[in-house]
Amino acid sequence: MPVVTLYFNRITKLLGSKVSREKITSTLPFLGLDIEDETSDYINVEYSPNRPDFSTDYGIVSSLQGLLGIKLGAPKLGIKKGNHVIKADASVAKVRPYIVAIEALNGKIDDETIRQIITMQEDLHNGIGRKRKKVSVGIHDLGKIKFPLVYKTVERTHRFIPLNSQDSMTISEILDKTETGLAYAHLLKENKKVPVIVDSAENTISFPPIINSNLTEVTTASRNLLIEVTATDKNAAEDALAVMAYTMQNAGFQLSSIRVSGPRNSTPILASRNMLLDPVLVKNTLGLDMPTSMVVKSLRKSRLDATVKSKKILCLVPRYRTDIFGPIDLVEEIALGYGIQNLEPTIPQAKSAGQKNKVTVSLEAIRSTMIGLGYSEVMNFGLAGKHTLYDLAKRDSSGMISVSDAKSQEHQILRDALLPGLIDVLSKNIHETYPQRIFEMGTAFYRGDPVGEEIHLACASAHNDVNYTEIKSILQSLLKSGFDITSTTKISNDPLFVQGRTADILIDDKKIGIVGELAPEALDNFKLRIPVAGFELNLTDLI
Amino acid sequence: MSQVLHPIEQKILKSLLERQNLTPEELTEKTQLSIDQVRRGIEWLKFKDLIQVNESERNFVMLGKRGNEALQNGLPERRLVNYLKSLPTFSCEINEAKDQLQNEFGPAIANAKKNGWMEIHENRIMLRGYHDHTSEEKIIKLIASKNSTMVSLDEIEDKDSLDLLKKRPEFLNFASTKYVTVSITEKGMAAAKNATSQITESVKRAIDVEAPAPVIFAARSHPLTDVIDEVREIFVSLGFAELVGNSIQSSFWNFDALFIPQDHPAREMQDTFYLKDISAKSVATPKQIKQVDMAHQNGWHYDWRLDAAKRMVLRTHTTCVTIKALADQKYDEARLFSIGRVFRNEKVSYKHLVEFNQVEGVVVGKNVTLQDLMGLQMEFYRKMGIKKAKFWPTFFPYTEPSLQSMIYNERLGKWVELFGMGIFRPEVTKPLGIKNPVLAWGGGIERIAMLRYGLDDVRELYNNKLGWLRSVPKCQ
């Protein structure tokens, strides 16, 4: 989950009211923010990606003001009608069809403000923007731009000076050589021509969704900003723009609209949504019969507007609250505004009998039988490494089931057997007292339709005098006292076991496992210097 | 190792040390054991090679017809002696003696002559001298003196006299019987002595009762299993029925059915394990697929794709199992739970594993509320021995409202996050035909186990160090 840094001096100033540091710290979790760490100057909080407005301290303060009762109701967005125009060319339709923008004027920008805005931009890219695929945001120094702007496509030979560079580069060079170019080139790989925004002086100001130009870089000297959003989804573009607009307004800027023209494009409105809420849903969901006035008050503490309208509640949801889908989300806002700590836990009556699953009951019985036979339980992962499972154990890997892009080599194959894992356990315990007798029960996987799962039991005994007879006795005893089954053993061959001292375990002529003394070569691979005997049993048909 | 002997065995060996070759009956008498005990003991000892069981034959002698006559009237020669003794001349004509002894005259005169008692001179038998008892008479008396009519040949020492008597027809009858006798082996002698001395020694010698005894390890279940079992028991005690489902699921049930859009970051490969080159053949009923498709189009405004829903994943939560059960069964009222492995494509660290156990509970009911959900949490925590808990809001894509519970850990002296929870969104329940509200909560069991066992590194639960597994107290 993303993290945002909150400096106490900034928070206090932004809150606009005297609130103790303790009060701030203890209130944050009730906004759904997890405190990661805290110093004397700042506090780091984790926020959920469904609240992009929490990616800056401006957004968090706005919500804090509500819960603390400093400011109630929805923040109002004031957008002055502007004269500037962006024209979307028909050529962008196949690449990245939509563009929206707004101007943020007369603001003061310090280093921390720039840092907060960049964090928000990144968050919008990753969240709503789906790693820039769906939406990307560009922020520019308005003073360097000559309107009107044109959003169009260009050849890959088109050149300009990208951000953080001194030299003019072609589109191809940017995609091949710059860090962001390399990271996001795949988003444009199906398009011969790429989208750019150029101004009336023919300066390229942005190459979405990759990089801005060096020309319009935002610095602490910037006073007026252009915020543009390009997207493959118009609704998502306006969501992102709304989050930016509210944040810039909170940061002290005045907003001015930019007219957008062109096929499928239009000027964004960023209007609040009306949503009707039935108080019955509040009562049924929370279990709390609160008066309508309290419902309204709670919504307003969650920075939403609400009025009573013929036994229903009409809510006004500002556009930046992209996390609110419908009435049930308003119920949560009511719970937050009311205070989760004020809810009273109640215990509902059970209307059904508790019961363990049949499989669980059988496995518990087998476990206790194995323990009675002197074997201790160990636990390995179902997702194993090829090295242990096949290479060291000298087993055939042709039916191997792999996962894609595993971060660790030790966890990339679904195990088809448990015994190699047990030998691995023994090899990690060579300094411990012998005899070592261990077992494991767990899922093993096989290629089926498309993949099947079985429950296996494997056990291993390691000590100087271990032999086939000992382990067969254990197997016999388990099957007899566990299932009242008499199994037979039929000589067989397996690379993991010693030839002539290994056998298939059969029940009614059906093979359900293998038992034997482990092959010295395999033990040697695991760096074991002590004999081991073991068996592996498929329990699926037995339980 | 010295042999451990049963008291029965010890008594038998002791008797055999005193006398070899005893029959079971004799052993019964000597040991005061019952015949059955003796027979059992003999079997045990024979198996251990401590005794040898011999089948031997015993010969018996008894008085025959003439032997009995001789017992009553004396031997023919004795009767002849007595007759001569009664005559004034201590002699008589042969014919007179023949009349007296009838057909026993032959043996009488032959034996008397052999004994040197008389001589014959011109048809007259004259008594020369006599013995009061002959060895043959002694044998007859000896046999007669025994209680039984049969007398063991071993009991008769004067074998020469016996042989003499044997030569005389109808005096003696012979018989033989097979007999079992038991004798002690050399090994048995050693064992008998050892057993005796061991008892005496161990009683006599004092030991250091305060010294540490050798360490042995009780076989046991994995500590994490114990926690899982405890959690399961609590759910059952609260009236929840257990669901079990597969670890491998289609993206449909793991994500789509839970209103997680197909381009959601959580679905990307750096967070989720997808199976390489394997897709589900079918994922749900056509109606379920259609409804979920609609929910995504209406809620998220994009083209939902079935092939993306068919991609197989290692489940990232157990909610996929729960939601499928709810969609298929459409319960109006139910309490269900599941415990199982879930997978996240993360870098392994002291706080993250790629695979861990998750527990999840759901309550379906017409009138269930968020306050009920909180109450169930408190009840669950109370049963886990957790005294202080509180709730904070949080976010999950498929629940609204959503909360997380924080519990106070005494050892760490701070609040730690435990479970996530919420009420399933209508965008989740409605398309699947679930009418009543569904309360759901869950979390990692390893987190509970770490608190329980005081671990700071979650990997310790899976590194299978026998030293740790053998030392964790079972009762915590």
Which keywords apply here?
heterodimer; A: 543 residues; Phenylalanyl-tRNA Synthetase, Chain B, domain 3; seven-stranded mixed β-sheet; six-stranded mixed β-sheet; B: alpha+beta; BirA Bifunctional Protein, domain 2; three-stranded antiparallel β-sheet; 41% helix; rod-shaped
Could you please describe the fold and organization of this structure?
The complex is a heterodimer of chains A (543) and B (476). Chain A has 543 residues and is of the alpha+beta class. Chain A has 4 domains: 3-67, Phenylalanyl-tRNA Synthetase, Chain B, domain 1, CATH 3.30.56; 79-261, Phenylalanyl-tRNA Synthetase, Chain B, domain 3 (3-Layer(bba) Sandwich), CATH 3.50.40; 273-340, 2-Layer Sandwich (Phenylalanyl-tRNA Synthetase, Chain B, domain 1), CATH 3.30.56; 358-538, Bira Bifunctional Protein, Domain 2 (BirA Bifunctional Protein, domain 2), CATH 3.30.930.10. Helix content of chain A is 29%, strand content 28%. Chain A is built from 15 helices and 29 strands. In chain A, strands 20-24-25-29-28-27-26 form a 7-stranded mixed beta sheet, sandwiched between helices. Chain A has a 6-stranded mixed beta sheet with strand order 13-12-11-8-5-16, with no helix packed on it. In chain A, a hairpin with a 3-residue loop joins strand 24 (436-447) and strand 25 (451-462). In chain A, helix 9 (292-301) crosses helix 10. Chain A is elongated and about 90 Å long. Chain B is an alpha+beta fold. Chain B has a domain at 223-471: BirA Bifunctional Protein, domain 2. Chain B contains 19 helices and 16 strands. Chain B has a 7-stranded mixed beta sheet, with helices on both faces. In chain B, a hairpin with a 2-residue loop joins strand 3 and strand 4 (124-127). Chain B is rod-shaped, with a radius of gyration of 52 Å. Chains A and B meet through helix 8, helix 10, helix 11, strand 20 and strand 22 of A and helix 11, strand 7, strand 9, strand 11 and helix 16 of B.
